[in-house]
């Protein structure tokens, strides 16, 4: 367990030490932020946060929560209409207009992307490798499989933990260079600090999350949070 309050003498300050953070109430009014209020989500979130949940169950829950978030985050997608034949007669049918892209920020975003694919099986998956420099908390790009041919109506950047917002901001900067008509961010838990930073950097992006937590500790972990979402999915403790 990380002790959030201890500052070590003679050591450089911890990444979030002494940095003011907004409260939940301050960010709850932000436009474009959608926080799930579904009871099934709350139920699954409790199991996800539980320290006794094993990596296989944790990964399964991330996928299930990803599917629920995908359902919520696709509420406004555009549709094309066409006439189809049922066994009985002709009727109007609806299909999602244009392609749907999902960009998992590696590696913690992988489970969420799988959940998305259970809802939209033909979603394109664009992997993006960003990792946090634990000292500065800045995001470093180490892998990029974004295609050159782009025909999407929307792309969802997915990463479970919106902590300082650094990776999410960088991922959206990278995606914006691809001229995708609409971008969204989907995460499981956000800290008020990261939510505010992301909204300030990308005010045009809709943000869908399952829960808004209290704050970041001095190390940049979300509290109460769930610990390290990558390690808990892949069993690398
Ligand atoms: N990344 C995580 O996996 N957990 C946190 O609490 C913050 C960032």
CATH class: Alpha Beta
Bound molecules: uracil
> Which of globular, elongated, flat, extended, rod-shaped describes the shape?
globular
Indicate the CATH architecture: 3-Layer(aba) Sandwich
Poorly predicted segments: 1-6
Give the helix/strand class: alpha/beta
What's the helix count? 7
Mean of all residue-level pLDDT scores:
93
Give me the Rg, rounded.
19 Å
Distance linking N and C termini: 12 Å
Sketch the major β-sheet. 9 strands, mixed
**Which fold name corresponds to the CATH topology?**
Rossmann fold
DSSP summary, beta strand count: 13
H-E order: HEHHEEEHEEEEEHEHEEEH
What is the helix content? 25-40%
| Fraction in beta strands | 25-35%
Enzyme class: transferase
Pfam families: UPRTase
Function: Catalyzes the conversion of uracil and 5-phospho-alpha-D-ribose 1-diphosphate (PRPP) to UMP and diphosphate.
Region (Disordered): 1-22
Keyword list:
disordered N terminus, nine-stranded mixed beta sheet, 7 helices, Rossmann fold, binds uracil, single chain
Question: Can you walk through the features of this model?
Answer:
The protein is α/β, with parallel strands linked by helices and 237 residues long. It has one domain (31-80, 91-234): Rossmann fold, CATH 3.40.50. The protein is 30% helix and 28% strand. The chain is built from seven helices and 13 strands. The chain has helices at residues 24-28, 39-49, 55-73, 110-119, 166-176, 192-201, 229-234; strands at residues 33-35, 79-85, 90-96, 99-106, 124-125, 128-132, 139-144, 152-158, 161-162, 183-190, 206-212, 215-216, 222-223. Helix 2 (39-49) packs antiparallel against helix 3 and helix 3 crosses helix 4 (110-119). Residues 1-6 have low confidence and may be disordered. Bound molecules: uracil (URA). Belongs to the UPRTase family. Residues 1-22 are annotated as: Disordered. One of its GO terms (molecular function) is uracil phosphoribosyltransferase activity.
């Amino acid at each position: 367990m990380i002790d959030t309050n201890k500052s070590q003498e003679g050591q450089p300050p911890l990444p979030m030490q002494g940095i003011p953070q907004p409260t939940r109430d301050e960010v709850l009014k932000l436009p474009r932020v959608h926080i799930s209020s579904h009871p099934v989500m709350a139920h699954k979130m409790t199991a996800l946060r539980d320290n006794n949940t094993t990596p296989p169950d944790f990964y399964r829950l991330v996928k299930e929560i990803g599917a629920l978030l995908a359902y919520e985050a696709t509420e406004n997608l555009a549709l094309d209409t066409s006439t189809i034949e049922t066994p009985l007669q002709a009727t109007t049918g609806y299909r999602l207009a244009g392609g749907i892209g999902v960009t998992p920020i590696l590696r913690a975003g992988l489970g969420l992307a799988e959940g998305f694919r259970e809802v939209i099986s033909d979603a394109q998956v664009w992997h993006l490798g960003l990792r946090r420099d634990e000292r500065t908390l800045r995001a470093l790009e180490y892998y990029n499989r974004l295609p050159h041919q782009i025909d999407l109506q929307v792309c969802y950047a997915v990463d479970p933990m919106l902590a300082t917002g650094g990776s999410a901001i960088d991922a959206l900067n990278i995606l914006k260079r691809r001229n995708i008509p609409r971008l969204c961010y989907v995460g499981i838990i956000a800290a008020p600090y990261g939510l505010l930073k992301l909204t300030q950097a990308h005010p045009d992006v809709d943000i869908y999350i399952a829960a808004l937590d209290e704050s970041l500790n001095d190390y940049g972990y979300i509290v109460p949070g769930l610990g390290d979402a990558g390690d808990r999915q892949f069993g690398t403790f």
